[in-house]
Amino acid sequence: MKKFLSNYKSTIILLAAIIVGAIIGIIFQEKAAILSPLGDIFLNLLLVIVVPLIFLTITTSIAKMKTPKRLGKIMITIIIVFVVTSIIAVLIGFASTYFVKLVNPEDGEQIKASLEGTTNEENIEEEEDVSIADRTVSLLTVDDFYKLLSKENIVAILIASIIIGIAINMTGEKAKPVQEFLESANEIVQNIVKIIMYYAPIGLGCYFASLVGSFGAQIAVGYLKTFVYYIIVTVAFYFIMYTVYAFIAGGKNGIKAFWKNAIPPTLTALATCSSAACIPVNVKCSKKIGVPDDIAETTIPLGTSFHKDGSIIGSVFKIMFLVCLFGTSLATGGEIIGVLGVALLANLLITAVPIGGGTISEMLIISMMGYPVAALPILTMIATIIDAPATMLNSVGDTVCSMMVTRVVDGKDWMKK
């Protein structure tokens, strides 16, 4: 019993805090929003540390790799794992919605009327004027160094970290002082994360109380079916697919190790609705599973922006909601492939920020599918109500992906090592 409590003490405390928060939210409903500032403090602390954490973990991880071949193998494997699992997610999302009417076309006018006046026309016109190529450039790069210090440019930070890490590795002995300084700074940042996590039970409990308290008011009747069905698909995907992935990565021992460490990132994702905020917890849990430092510290931050099972499935739900609402035909293979392609592409343009970060992807869905701009608030509402379970899949999916990357890079006996 003592060993059990020792191994799961932090998880039990977090789970208890989440349950207490949920009960408070259910009882006090909108009044529970008074606890929101305490939750926001925790989220802000995590988001402030995200930029140095990503930069230092990726840069030092790549810089200290003794064999360039390992770096290349890790990066190629990460890309392959992310692509394959993303394709599986979009196929499952489509298969689960193809035969289900998420909304009746006759309800369309009522839904649009309920959202009338919520669209900011100026912002929409501004989004329309920006081409996909320009969006991609702004996603991958920034035009000034100081902008790399912002969490709004997570992808650019990732790319800069990789380039700097490779450059340090190429420089060799002359870069040793810089490498040692960055490794020392990384240790300090890791300890800052530990300090922040002492506040996690209070922060997560208050955040979840506020979330649950306001959740009911956000779900209009017309979206209830979509929300409930998305929850069913998400829970099924979470338990079935991640168990399969863990088995592929490490057999029965892989399954045990994964589920033993999956609860902290799951609870953090549900409470914060931020993939970026989950990075410290995810990296820690991946290392507990047995994933090597260089793989965990590379796969998790990259996955935050480039691997989003929950968001991909969510994009399929958004598209199929509009398909039902506007009576769009999906009779041919080309039309179906188009839906799958749009869902995948839309998620390449989502950065790791809390609720609201998917506006660009939603505009992409609307423009590529040929729907009116008035549909934007509809997608925003769907994104809001599915955000917590979507973030859960996004976050926990990165952990299991780090296991599969390790399986390829270090061989089938990696867990024994």
Can you characterise this structure?
It contains 18 helices and no strands. It is mainly α. Helix 1 packs parallel to helix 11 (263-272), helix 3 (68-97) runs parallel beside helix 14 (309-326) and helix 9 crosses helix 11 (263-272). The radius of gyration is 21 Å and the shape is globular.
What are the SSEs and their pairings?
Elements: H1 2-28, H2 36-63, H3 68-97, H4 108-114, H5 121-129, H6 132-140, H7 154-171, H8 176-197, H9 200-218, H10 221-261, H11 263-272, H12 279-289, H13 293-306, H14 309-326, H15 333-347, H16 359-369, H17 376-385, H18 387-410
Low-confidence stretches: 117-128, 351-357
Tally of domains: 1
The biggest sheet amounts to:
none
Distance between termini?
28 Å
The protein's oligomeric status is single chain
Count of DSSP strands: 0
Please tell me what the overall shape is.
globular
CATH class: Mainly Alpha
**What is the strand content?**
under 5%
Q: What is the level-2 CATH architecture name?
A: Orthogonal Bundle
Please compute the radius of gyration using only Cα atoms.
21 Å
Please name the fourth-level CATH homologous superfamily. Answer: Sodium:dicarboxylate symporter
Label the structural class: mainly alpha
Short description:
By secondary structure, the chain is mainly alpha-helical. It has helices at 2-28, 36-63, 68-97, 108-114, 121-129, 132-140, 154-171, 176-197, 200-218, 221-261, 263-272, 279-289, 293-306, 309-326, 333-347, 359-369, 376-385, 387-410.
